[in-house]
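Lab channel / #folding
Pinned by the channel admin:
"Please post every new chain as: sequence first, then the C-alpha cells as a reply. Keep commentary short and put observations after the output so the thread stays searchable."

First post following the new format, from NK:
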Amino acid sequence: MSRHILTILLLLTIAAAAPGQPRPSMLLSEGDVRLMRASLGTAPLFDAAVADAKRRVDAAIAAPMDVPVPADAGGYTHERHKQNYTEMQLAGVLFQLTRERRYADFVRTMLLKYAALYPSLGRHPSAAGEAHGRLFWQSLNETVWLVNVAQAYDCVYDAVPAADRTVIERDLLRPMVKFFTVEQSSVLNRIHNHGSWMAASVGMAGFALRDTAMVSAALYGTGDAPGGYLRLLDGLFSPDGYYTEGAYYIRYAIMPFFVFAKAVDNNRPGLRIFAYRDSVLKRAFNAMLQLTYTTGQFLPFNDALKEKSYRSPEVITALNIAYATFGAEPSLLTVAKEQGSVTLTGGGCLAAKGLAATSLLPPFPYRSLELRDGPQGERGGIGILRHGGNDDQLLLLMKYTGHGLSHGHYDKLSLMMYDQQREQLQDYGAARFINVEPKYGGRYLPETKSFAMQTIAHNTVTVDERSHFGGDIALSERFSGTRHFFDAGTGTTAAMSARCNDAVPGVRMQRTVVTIADPSLPKPLAVDLFRVVSDREHTYDLPFYYIGQFLAMNQRLTQYTERQEALGTAPGYRHLWKEAEGRAQGMVQFTWLSGNRYYSVSSAADTGTTVCRVRIGANDPNINLRREPAVILRTRGTSALFASVIEPHGLWDGTIEISRDAASGIAGVTVLASTDEGSVVRLDRKNGKGWTVMVANGAADAGRQRSVTAGGTTYRWTGNYAVTVN
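Reply from TO:
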C-alpha cells in the first residue's frame, strides 16, 4: 500500500462524512449557490449558461418524457439516455438557483421512471466484451449517467417525498452501484479511464446517499485487490502529470477525476484531495493543456479523434474547478474565453466573473517541454518542441511513452508536426465515427486495429514489415521508449532525442530531432536523424504522412495508375495502396502545399534506397479509412541512418495569385558519420550556406567532449548535440 493511501486512510478516520452535511454537497455547495444567485446579471458568460440551461430544461419539461428500453449502441435510445441525464443534472442546478418546484419535480418524475425500468434490464442487447452495461452498451456510459444523476438527486433531495426517495434508491441507485461494485468490480479496480469514471460514479452516489461504504469502495476499490480512485491517481499519472493513455483520453478522464475530487473536497475537506501526491491533479490539468496545439486541438497520438479540443465539455468542467481551486490564473481565463461557455458551478461563475472584469488577456503560455510517462516517470515520455507565437507556431512532437493501455498504439519514436494552425505531418489517430450508428454502431472500427494501431501508420521506422512488439499488446505494455536527452533551447537551436531497444528483437533505434531557427530562415528547419542498428540484415521503412497537395518530387518513379496493389499483406501494409515506386538517385526531396506555405522533406539516400508513394485505403470496402498520402523511404541492411530535413518555406496566396519560394532551399543532405559515439550530417543550402549537425549516440552528458572519426576526418563537439555553420 502506497504512502499516499496510508495518509488518506489516516485522514479518513478523522474526516468521515457527516450524515447531516448540508445539500447540495457535490459540485455545488451552499456557498456556491449563494455566489451564483448573487452574480446573476453581472457575468455575461454565466448568465448565458443559465439561460441555455433554462431553455433546454423548460423544453424538456414541456415535451413528453421518454425513458426508452435500451436498443442500440449509438442511435436513438443511446442518445436519449444521454440527453436525459444532462437535463436532470441541469434541472437540479436550476432548482437550487431558482427554487422553482417544477425543476425538482422533473428530476423526481424521471428518476421514478428509471426506477421502474432498471430492475427489468439485463445485459444490453448491443453489448460487446466484459464491460457491458444495461442502460448503455458498455458500463462506461452508464457510469457517466450516474455521475450526472447523482448530482441531480443531491440537488433535489430535500424536495422529493421520502416515499419516492425510497423507490429511487431501492430500485435504481443502489442496484446500479451494486452492478458496478460486484458484477463490474474488475472495471472499478482497473487502471484505465473506465475505472476512473466508475470510481467517480460510485463515490458520487455514495455522497448523494450518505453511504460511507460506497465512498470507501470508490476511494479504495472492492475486494482484496487494491483499486479505486486513489490507486488510479497513483497509476495513471506520471510525476509530470502526463496521463498514460495519451492526450485524447486525458481530455475524457479529466472530468471524473476533477468532479469526484470536488465532491470529496466538499464532503471531506480534511482529506486535502487536491494536494494528494504533490498536487498531481493540478499537474495533470496543466499537462493536458500543454498537449493541445494553439487551436485548442488535442495532439492525436494513440486512439484519438482529431475534432476534440479543449472546448470539450469535460475540459470546461475541469477548468472551472481548477480556476476556483488552484487560483485565478489569467492563462485559464484565456482558455475559458476560447471555450466560450462555463458550467453552472461556483467555479464556472468565478471564471465568468473573471472574464467580465478583464479586458486584456495574455496568450496561453505554450512552451517546449518533456513530459515523462509512468507512475515514477520511468516509462519514457513525450517531447514537444515549439517555435513561434500562438498565431503561427511550429510544433514537433516525438512519442516514446509506454504503450498506453488498451487505447495505445504500437509505434515508438513516432513524429508529428503542426504549423499554420494545422497538421503538416500527421499521426492517423483512431479509425472511428463516434456515435454514428451506421459506422459500426459508433464504436472503434476494425481498421483501428488493422491499420491505425500498426507501426506503419505512423511516422517512424517499421522493421521487416512488422509492427513494433509484433503487434502484441501484452508485450508492448511491458516496455517503453527511453529518454536520451531533451533541450528546450535558449538560442537558435533545440533538440529532443529518445531510444527504443525493445520494439524489435536485435534492433536498436534512436531518433533525434534538432530544430534550427536561423535568422536567415523564414521558419525553423527540423533535422530528423533516425538511426537503426542491428547485427542482422533487415528491411527498414520510414514513412512521412503529409497533409496537403503533393507538388513535386526529384525522383523518377514508376507510376501504378492502371492497376494498383497493396504495399504488402502484413497488418497496416495491406491498407496502403502503392501508387508509385523507384530507386533513389541521390538525395530524395518532395514538396507539398498546405495552407499558405510550402513544405519539403529532403533525405539523404543512395541507390540502395527505394522510394514509394502510397495512399491509405486499400482493402477497405466500407471506406472506413481516410484516403491520405505518404512517402516511404525503404532501405535494406544491418544498420541505417535516415537523415532528413523538414523545411517550411515560401508563400502561396490563391486570392491574389502569388507564389514565392515554392522550391526547397536545401541542395544536399549528406551523412558524414554514424557510429555508436555519434552521427554527423551536413546540410547544404542552394545559397551556398548550410550547417553541420552533430548528435551523440553514446551516453547523454551535456558536458562531455565528443569526437567521431570517419573518412579521415574527425568531428569534435561538446555536449549531446551541436550545430555549426558550414
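NK: The radius of gyration is 28 Å.
TO: also worth noting, Residues 1-18 have pLDDT under 50 and may be disordered.
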